[in-house]
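Example record

One chain of 313 residues, shown exactly as stored in the release files.
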Amino acid sequence: MTDAGAQLLDAEGTALLNERKLAAACPKLEQSYRLKPGTGVLLRLALCHEVAGKPATALAFYLEAAERATVAGNQQLVEVAQKRAAALQPHLSHLAVDLSSSLKELPNLRVSLDGTPLELMTLGSDVPVDPGSHVIEAVAPGRKRFEKTIVVSDEPQRYPFTIVLPEEPARSKVGVSSPAQGEVQVVKPSSWSTQRSLALVAGGVGLAGLTAGTFLGLTVGSRMRDARALCEGEESGCPDEALALQDQAGSYALASTIAFCAGAAGIAGGIALWLTAPSPNAPHQPERPRDAQLRVVPMLGIGQGGIQAVGTW
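Predicted structure tokens for this chain:
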């Protein structure tokens, strides 16, 4: 079945070649050769590419046909293939691909022409190419990828060029710069620390205490004035309502004192925390060892207030 298919494709491709329908003829002849390799169909495939204006491709097939005929002992076909190959030589264009001196000993270097790998040992020699666009690529670990497109004209020419692979720049994590060895990295502290936030909270609590103390103090004065007004003109003493107002005034007075003390303590603690917070422009200081830490703690309580420095060793 394979032989029959190969023979059919060969016959169809040959007929199309004779009619100069090369776009359809060459693929059929190539498929026939893949199914059943033979020197005759290979010569016809080479001729198809030669007529299509692809002398480099035709040359490769003619040389392969000469080798097959030599192995088969068919001297007549050897001479035909060699003669056709020699006739193509003046019509060939060549790429002269070379490496820069720094790349010749580079390990894992890969060079390709139109996606087909090139033997590194052949670099520097002329490579026959068909007219049209050709892409040369070269890759190696740690080097930038090289790619060059060469447009080969119908007129035979030589196209020399050298592959250069610059080294890739050192990569670092995005947004993170690593200091060089021996370099001291300065860490800029945040312009707003937690201690400053606590200072504002303590100050806010202190202001609230002073406001409450002031309000309660005014309430004390109001209650005392009302009690005195009820007692005036009473020969038998102050009425019960006046005594109740005096008791309320005493309770408000105590509450006002407590509020004032708490407010004073809050403001004092806030000032202390603010003044001891690190300056935004100051150089970063190393953290104190765990065996010697100092903390400033505001102390609030009924009837007293202040700040306390607590040290642990």
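Notes: The chain has a mean pLDDT of 78.
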